[in-house]
Amino acid sequence: MNKKIGACALVLALAAAVSAASFFAVRAAQGEPAAVTAEQVAALREGSRGEDVKTVQQKLKRWGYYSGGVDGIYGPATKKAVMYFQRKNGLVADGIVGSKTYAALGMMQQAGTGGSAGSANGYTDADTYLLARCIYGEARGESYTGQVAVGAVVLNRVKSDQFPNTISGVIYQRHAFTAVSDGQINLTPDQTAINAAKDAMNGWDPTYGCLYYYNPATATSEWIFSRETVVTIGRHVFAI
């Protein structure tokens, strides 16, 4: 009896080994790596389901990249929206939400950053860097005060119930910032822009609570001219 049990166990073990070998052989034949990393397992792709998929759909829908239902099912429409977002933000447009796309979406825990605070106000280092990129893309030719002012407008929007409630959500809201539309958001910010972002995060608001700014020499929207002007700093008019 013991011999029969031992033989049976050996057969099962061999079958499992053959099955595993076949799986990795197929992956290799398809040009895929045999090893699956932790990041690959955590990434969202077509066929994924769950709350993280819902969060991605909600963010992309709010920012104008996605028009489908928020159902937690990563289907072709979600993949198309993710690729659109990736293209617009200088990422590899593969339709897979890995660490870099997670970070761009403001989903810091999923990105593996741990959401470490970058200031006493609870902002992360990634938040600071993204705000600095926005400041650099939008206002690097302005005075230091003017650069802090642009950062303050972003943060004022985060606090307002009229806009998304995260820095990434505000910055990537569709058509909100020229730097995102023309790709300048992907430039590397200098130390001045980084310092301006930190000062804005620490509470300096040269705009006195403004939610909008524009350059009157280049603005084409009649609506923006209807906003109440609070202060002018350099070439930018700041308004509510």
Description:
With 240 residues, the chain is mainly alpha-helical. The chain has two domains: 42-111, Muramoyl-pentapeptide Carboxypeptidase, domain 1, CATH 1.10.101.10; 125-239, Orthogonal Bundle (Arc Repressor Mutant, subunit A), CATH 1.10.10.2520. Helices cover 51% and strands 5% of the residues. The protein is built from twelve helices and three strands, in the order H-H-H-H-H-H-H-H-H-H-H-E-H-E-E. The chain has a three-stranded antiparallel β-sheet with strand order 1-3-2, with helices on one face.
Write the layout of secondary structure elements.
Blueprint: H1 2-29, H2 38-42, H3 51-62, H4 76-88, H5 99-104, H6 108-111, H7 125-139, H8 144-159, H9 167-171, H10 178-181, H11 191-201, E1 212-214, H12 222-225, E2 229-233, E3 236-239
Antiparallel strand pairs: 1-3, 2-3
